[in-house]
Amino acid sequence: MNSRETSAIQLIPMSEATVDRQTLFALYKLSLYEYIDQTFGWDEDFQQDRFSKSYPDPEISLIVLGSATVGYFALRNEPDSLHLSLLLLQPESRNRGIGRTVMHTLMSRAAASGQPLSLSCFLSNRAAISFYQKLGFRAVTEDEHFITYRSPIPGQAT
Fold first, then answer.
1. For 67-81, how does the pLDDT look when each residue is reduced to its tens digit (9 = 90+)?
2. Is the distance from CB of 61 to CB of 13 less than 8 angstroms?
């Protein structure tokens, strides 16, 4: 994807979206089933309930390219960071620069508020770990299943 195409990416709040939550959950399941199932076991009812409670509409923004919704993310304010709790792209939209463009936008937003962007991902999700490290994220904590990252803040020592 060229820079002209990535500049056409729009981030649209869920409140202005025409996509329903079941469509969002379907992408959640498609993207995370493997990691959740191998880590905790997948329980459909539990995951639907957790999705509803953990990712409220005000925190969700759609990633739109042209007229197509290619993914979404969930973002919330924490006391010491802007926290990205979810970033999902349709499989055909991965590895095209869309995620990188979205992440640069979110990192700029966080930096403008004087905070880092934080996020966690499954330790077993090697593609995500590589992606975040290439963007300059640094690991700050790790447990049995997850690794937490923070972005550097321009002008501050890391």
1. 899 999 999 999 999
2. yes
The secondary structure element, H or E, covering residue 126 is: helix 126-134
Chain position carrying tokens 């960071």: 81
Beta-bridge partners for 11: 63
Confirm whether 156 is domain-assigned.
Answer: no
Report the CATH number that the domain containing residue 11 is assigned in CATH. Answer: 3.40.630.30
Establish how many alpha carbons lie within 13 A of residue 115's alpha carbon, considering only the half-sphere containing its beta carbon: 16
Strand partners, 78: 81
Task: Provide the domain limits for residue 116.
Answer: 3-150
Per-residue model confidence as pLDDT tens digits over 12-26: 999 998 899 999 999
